[in-house]
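Hello Y.,

Per our agreement to keep a running log of every chain we model this quarter, I'm adding this entry. I've kept the format consistent with earlier entries: sequence first, then predicted structure.
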Amino acid sequence: MEFGNLNGEFEGVNFALPPDPEATTKTLQDKRNGANLEIRIGGAKWADKRWKGVVYPNTLKEDEYLKVYSENFNTIEFGPTFYNIYKAEELSKWKEQVSGSPDFKFLPKFPQHITHIRRFVNAEEVTTKFYESLNGLGSHVGPLLLQLPDNITPKSYLQLKAYLESMPRNLKVAVEVRHRDWFAIESNRIDLFNLLSRLDIPWVITDAPGRRDVLHMNLSTTDAIIRFVGASPINVKVEGDTSLGRSKPHEVDYTRIDEWVERLKVWRDQGLKSVWFFVHQHNERLTPVMCDYLIQQLNAKLGVDVKRPTLL
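Predicted structure for the entry above:
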């Protein structure tokens, strides 16, 4: 994931989580219902050969990667739907691979044809095809991820508003925006928050070293969808490190995860219903390690029992 990548140059970067906006506290308190916190943790891809020797046995065949992934993690950002619009029977092949993990959820991304090409305008037909295709994933469908490209500014607010208001309500959708003006101009931030809150759409929070503005901490619903981008540059050589093959997570990532655990505990106590936490590393070999550390800390600090991945 290149978004927010500083390639290890962190001088002047404040990695601390910002304080919660008043709107976040109000969202949690107004919608508190006493439900147990649902926790889902995963990565952004499964078909990565760098996971061999970490999660995947060295003898594992590629067509078995997703099955083993789903046995170790309970969710994944599902990128194939961003690049192609599938038929339901085509998506069902992935459903079959996770059938042994009935609680596993995909987080399908909206097709780029909607977000990047049509930019939400005249996208009704392709949206219908996208939703119909998701029947192929059956009960394994989680929230849908609507990612706006960097070049969609608040000037497109009305088009985005019309599109979100017209979408089917049978599946939960989460929205991620990236252009700086969504965050730098208060009126834009308030308008977007109010829209998402009214439609019960989570506003995705991204914690990336090079874009601290997208770490906005606004919860428009009681669902926290977090995309965590690691600080480690690609292939940092570490003398004597054989367990991870020439690299290890940056020490600042452990501190960042610790702070996230403390914030999630606060949110849980205030009324948070679910957390979907996706770990990205520029060297994806490190992703399972950070996921495992996050799960360990959540289990210890929140008194939950999330299954840890089996690291080889």
